[in-house]
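S., here's the first fold you wanted:
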Amino acid sequence: MSNIEKPPLAAAFKALSNPHRLTLFNRLLNCCEPGTRCDAASATRFCVGDLGEGLEIAPSTLSHHLKELNRAGLVEMARKGKRVECWVEPEKLKTLSQFFQPNPP
């Protein structure tokens, strides 16, 4: 773990410790039906309204959770007219996966 910066990693794990944020992050990671293929744009970007479907939380709470994921560097957000799109930052996924890899001898 010596190559990984600990404060950003700790912020990412703290953000993911909330069940709603973990669910949102997981939805962004697994947006395609199993066994199907998606192009990069549709596989990694969601409109905020679509992302919150079925969570039974207020839109303001959804926005708060997404902002926390964004602050932790896990999710990127961009306004497209009236829509706000969200997607997982691929570089952060690499960092998270490195954390779980055994250190080489």
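And the second, which I think is the more interesting of the pair:
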Amino acid sequence: MTHELQPVESAALPALDAAIVAYVEASKASNTRKAYASDWTHFEQWCKARGEPFLPAFPQTVAAYITALADTHKPATLQRRLASISVAHQAAGYPSPAGAPLVRATMQGIRRTHGVAQRQAAPLLVEQVRQAVCISGDTARDVRDKAIILLGLAGAFRRSELVALDVSDLQFREQGVVVTLRRSKTNQEGQDESKDIGYGAHEHTCPVRALRRWLEVAGIESGPVFRPFTPDGRAVAAQRLSDRAVSRAVKAAAKRIGLSADLFSGHSLRAGFVTQGYRAGIPEADIMRQSGHKSRAVLGKYRREGERFLTNFSAKVGL
């Protein structure tokens, strides 16, 4: 194959004013920027290893790239790789090869061959949480993880939202606690967004009491709400807890009551609230107000799960 275009090294990219660069970077969430950078580095290295130009890249090169990864990567991951390639080209002033007919056709073929269904984390439901909480220990770590699970479920929080909370984001009131989110997946511009967490009907599963107890046990009066422990495990560290620790807490709770930890993740708390909400007959608008979902279509999978077995069709037809 004869190439007329020559590869352009990263150092040769058009120079932008530092302020412009800062604002462009701020237009994307931190995790998104990290994903784009990682994806682009992988594509660049893949091209260099084959002597192919990567900026600008030919559609044939991009099609070959996603084809090479099709057996080991999910279609959703490949779609994100294409988005990263597109962003890099647009930032450098080049048309994106990811939108070329050849690339789109290749991606469509990959989807049809490998399917696009993604494994969703199982929802952690209220009855499961009750069981897990009742048999949990009483160490400071247990108190912290209990607060994470109960608050996360009651507020349909994402794990990133939980670990981003500061004490200044909490307003304890007679009816419960108002939690202010400074940033969320659907609120990247810092608009005022809050969630009302009321007192639970049962003291041992009350998210407000669990949160208060964690703050008291840990002696936290300001700064991050959820924190790791020092290496010796004797004291609470000053830094913010990693969002991976939320997943570990959920998995540990599931394992404690005999469930497969592999089925659960940090997202199980958010999924659990929405699923439980449908089962409890909470109006969809109220579910969305608490969860922060903007689209009813996104809630479809939770609605289906929440409404399973509400009607016993076997019995209804006389079996």
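Why I say that: DSSP finds 14 helices and three strands in the chain. The mean pLDDT is 83.

Talk tomorrow,
H.
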